[in-house]
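Query form — protein Endonuclease YncB(Thermonuclease family)

QUESTION: What is the three-dimensional structure of this chain?
INPUT:
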Amino acid sequence: MLSRQRTRGVVLWLASVALFILAGTASAARAQTADPCFGPAEPVTIAGPAGPMTLALDDGRLVRLADIAAADPAADRRLEAMAGQAAGLRRVAAFEGADRHGRIVGDVVPKDTTEGLRIELLSGGLALVDPAVISEECLETSFAAERRAEGAAKGVWSQHHPVLSANASNRLERVGQNVLVEGTVMDVGRSRRTIFLNFGADWRSDFTAMVAQRTAGKWVDAPVTLTGARVRIRGVLEAWNGGLIKVEHPAQIERLDASSRPRLRSDSR
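ANSWER: The structure tokens for Endonuclease YncB(Thermonuclease family) are given below.
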């Protein structure tokens, strides 16, 4: 009798140890699968829109939806519809502070959903990817959502196509707007501080993309290697000569002939 009790006790002890190990393994698995791009969700209530791609919280804080730009008027209406709703606030993991306007940079996940508002706007064609603070690896899901909208001709992709040809004669009509410009890099010019990607024979009248030397030195695929490459460049079009986009993030340049974008070196992050 005593032997059977001792055996039962040993079995129960072993079962407890097994459960402890399984619980620890599950916790470790959850930690390993945690999103490396955005932090954990903080419960918040949305007060309403507070500027381009910006939401005000009921506690007075402002949240800028990270690395997207409105591309369709319906984007503003979607932000207006968030007023009074509960949501989860997720900060960009690599950008813990506030931007120069004092706004939190991140995403909001509406209550009872699993998809953030950023991806919703991109996949609906209401916004475009606008690389700024999110790493190129973490932007992959954003680009995938944008491509889905482009392929399905949703939102802005069904109306005035946001992609401009580098040779379009009317490109300067879009000055001040966030645009995508496609073309072939004719040649690459360099100065002490700047790299110029020229899309025509005369830089004074043709479209140009400009990359700071201090930034280009951190990229895996140097911009100086892009001569002859067909690319898509995104950013705000400026009225400089035949039009200019300043490239400050590797994900602003997409190589269409190689289906890849220039990347930062791992030792530069």
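ADDITIONAL NOTE: The longest strand covers residues 42-49.
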